């Protein structure tokens, strides 16, 4: 089912409900009985370590001067492609990168390494108003050269997803990831929870008995003495 049909039907149904509530439509909502169409979520693709290394190697050899820094910004911050290409030198300050042109129209600050900050600061601007061009064609080329196979219709977003997956694999906090990615709701970020490492042994450390410093051996001795009385 095309997603355009779903996005078209939803506002139509809402409009019908609104008209009914405001008495613009006297009869029953004609779209009330239409069920929501469920669209299968697209395959979540990301790059593993070997793929990331091959990709970066090909980016470093690319004739596009803008490709490597844009890719590194995306992989280092989880930035969307258009957010990374909109970065200017003044967006780097005190180890933080401000991401402009965000989808949610909110300022987003992400910490970056000193090396990446220096790369951005030293990059030769494309023009007075633009630090980077849009090297999407070069990116498509290096994806092929790196022998990386992506699902149909996916390309640059794999960098953002790779950041999110790796962040969770390193035991990152999902709420922090939500802030970093700029998701409006936690539900949008929770799809990455399945990549968090399963550590059953953590229960032995992260429980109130252990954290409170209770000595179970001492408690057993006290229990025995109480039984002898």
| Overall number of strands | 3
Given helix and strand content, the structural type is mainly alpha
Helix content: 40-55%
Shape: elongated
Average per-residue pLDDT, rounded, comes to 84
What strand order characterises the main sheet?
1-2-3
Gyration radius, rounded:
25 Å
H/E series: HHHHEEEHHHHHHH
Number of helices: 11
Identify the CATH homologous superfamily of the largest domain. Answer: Intergrase catalytic core
Q: Roughly how many Å apart are the termini?
A: 76 Å
Largest sheet geometry: 3 strands, antiparallel
- Spans of at least 5 consecutive residues with low confidence: 1-13, 15-22
**CATH architecture title of the largest domain:** Orthogonal Bundle
Please indicate the percent range of residues in DSSP E strands (runs of 2 or more): under 5%
How many domains? 2
The CATH class assignment of the largest domain is Mainly Alpha
Q: Within the CATH hierarchy, at the fold level, what is the topology of the largest domain?
A: hpI Integrase, Chain A
What's the helix and strand layout?
Elements: H1 3-21, H2 49-61, H3 67-77, H4 81-85, E1 92-93, E2 96-99, E3 108-111, H5 114-122, H6 136-145, H7 157-169, H8 174-181, H9 186-189, H10 208-211, H11 216-228
Antiparallel strand pairs: 1-2, 2-3
Helix pairs in contact: 3-7
Notable characteristics:
hpI Integrase, Chain A; mainly alpha; 229 residues; single chain; elongated; disordered N terminus
Q: Any overview of this molecule?
A:
With 229 residues, this protein is mainly alpha-helical. The protein has two domains: 1-40, no CATH class; 49-195, Orthogonal Bundle (hpI Integrase, Chain A). Helices cover 48% and strands 4% of the residues. The protein has eleven helices and three strands, in the order ααααβββααααααα. It has helices at residues 3-21, 49-61, 67-77, 81-85, 114-122, 136-145, 157-169, 174-181, 186-189, 208-211, 216-228, and strands at 92-93, 96-99, 108-111. The chain has a three-stranded antiparallel sheet with strand order 1-2-3. The chain starts with a helix and ends with a helix. The model is unreliable at 1-13 and 15-22 (pLDDT under 50).
């Amino acid at each position: 089912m095309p997603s355009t049909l779903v996005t078209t039907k939803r506002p139509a149904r809402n409009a019908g409900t609104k008209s009914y509530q405001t008495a613009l439509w006297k009869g029953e909502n004609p779209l009330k009985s239409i069920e929501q169409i469920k669209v299968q979520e697209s395959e979540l693709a990301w790059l593993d370590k070997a793929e990331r290394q091959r990709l970066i190697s090909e980016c470093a050899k690319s004739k596009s001067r803008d490709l490597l820094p844009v890719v590194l910004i995306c992989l280092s911050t989880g930035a969307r492609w258009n957010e990374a290409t909109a970065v200017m030198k003044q967006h780097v300050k005190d180890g933080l990168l401000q991401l402009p042109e965000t989808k949610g129209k909110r300022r987003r600050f992400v910490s970056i390494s000193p090396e990446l900050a220096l790369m951005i600061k030293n990059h030769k601007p494309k023009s007075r108003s633009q630090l980077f061009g849009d090297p999407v064609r070069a990116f498509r080329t290096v994806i092929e050269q790196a022998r990386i196979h992506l699902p149909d219709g996916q390309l640059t977003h794999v960098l953002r997803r790779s950041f999110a997956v790796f962040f969770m694999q390193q035991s990152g906090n999902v709420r922090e990831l939500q802030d970093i990615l700029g998701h409006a709701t936690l539900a949008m970020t929770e799809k990455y929870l399945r990549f968090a490492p399963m550590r059953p042994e953590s229960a032995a450390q992260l429980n109130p008995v252990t954290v409170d410093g209770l000595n179970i051996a001492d408690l057993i001795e006290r229990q025995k003495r109480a039984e002898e009385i």
